[in-house]
């Protein structure tokens, strides 16, 4: 059965959790979700994050500085 691009990627699990658009290039997988690299950002200051360089609180990613400021 043919699918449009969005439903095809939704079925494959390759929609960006940040923008809900298909991921066709580089991808970051974190918190059991997939992101375009530019959409994996701190939930507070919006600085771009890298996998492994963030802390998680309430299913949201934070840079170390914001995490310490908000939850430390």
Question: How would you characterize the overall build of this protein?
Answer:
The structure is a single chain. With about 70 residues, the protein is of the alpha+beta class. It folds into two domains: about 1-40, no CATH class; about 40-70, no CATH class. Helix content is about 20%, strand content about 15%. It is built from two helices and four strands. The protein has helices at about 5-10, 65-70, and strands at about 30, 35, 55, 60. The strands form two sheets. It has a two-stranded antiparallel sheet. It has a two-stranded antiparallel sheet with strand order 3-4. The N and C termini lie far apart (about 50 Å). This is LIM zinc-binding domain-containing protein. Pfam families: LIM.
What keywords describe this structure?
4 strands; elongated; 72 residues; metal-binding; two-stranded antiparallel sheet; zinc; LIM domain; alpha+beta
Nutshell version of this structure?
By secondary structure, the protein is of the alpha+beta class. The chain has helices at about 5-10, 65-70, and strands spanning about 30, 35, 55, 60.
